Structures are given as C-alpha cells and as structure tokens.
Amino acid sequence: ETWEKARRDPLTGLFNRETGIRAIRSALEDRAHPGELVGVMFCDLDGFKA
How many structural domains does the chain have? Predict the structure, then answer.
C-alpha cells in the first residue's frame, strides 16, 4: 500500500512521472532489438482539472 501511494498521483490515480519513466525505460530495454524502431508519445495536459 505504501509503495502504491508513493508512486501514484492522488488526484488522478495515475503513475507519477518518475514511475512512468522507469516503466518506459524498462519496456524499451526489454523489447527493443537492433534495427527496430520504437516510439513513445507523451501528452502534456496544461490546465488539467479534475
């Protein structure tokens, strides 16, 4: 439970930035092979309100 609270945004329930970057880095390391293309998309929600 403490792990979840430290790694999730309390407002949205989504992973925080640090946890998201670690997950993306790990996925890229696990799946990327020489010669393959990999894409990552980030969305910045300015003025986001819940």
Answer: 1
State the chain's mean pLDDT as an integer: 80
pLDDT at 31: 77
How high is the pLDDT of residue 42? 78
Cβ pair 11, 50 in contact under 8 A: yes
SS3 8: strand
Domain that holds residue 17: 1-50
Please tell me the distance from the alpha carbon of residue 43 to that of residue 5, in angstroms, as a whole number. 23
Question: For residue 42, which phi and psi values (nearest 5 degrees)?
Answer: -110, 140
